[in-house]
Amino acid sequence: YHMFGGGWSPSTCCYAVRKIIELAKLDPNGETARTILKAFYVDDCVKSIKDVASGILLFKEITSVMGKYHFDFTKLVSNKQELLDAFPLEKRAADSVDLDFDGGRVTIQHSLGQRWQPGDDIFCFICCFLSDPKSRRELLSTLSTLYDPLGLCAPFMIPARRLLQELTKRGLTWDDPLPDDVACQWRRWVRDSACI
Known about the structure:
This protein is mainly alpha-helical. It has helices at 10-23, 31-38, 52-68, 81-85, 136-143, 154-169, 180-192, and strands spanning 40-41, 44-45, 109-111, 114-117, 122-124.
């Protein structure tokens, strides 16, 4: 039994992943142990590797060690076809089984809630910004639609957050209408959002 009573409990999973290093007697400074410690978020592992050969070797080591403790890897995906070919088909993410890097048909993958396009190795963002929010509340609500846990869009978001700050300095309540100058700056920012 574990802390919160559910087999899906994130704290239990994190504990189990870290316990494997101890049970397997892994060198804590080795790449396998460092990957298990640093590249896992609950039961998801995201790792950037400098070359395909290193990736295949690391994948085999981690799956061997983790498999001994019934921690099975599934939904594997890579931005390199050679690395994908090293994964058994049944272990790959369903929509990555027939990725075509050369032909350009590469689907968007999801990694830790972030959209990732493996063919170009880029993160994607979906922005649903209201072009004409009526109040400070709507402006904040619109800004909150962008999910960016890594903070990659932070430089772009600063001007919009400064608009919110300006509204607060002016003493506007959450439902007061936006002043014309702020609404104009907001529309310009939304127009520029197509750049990200």
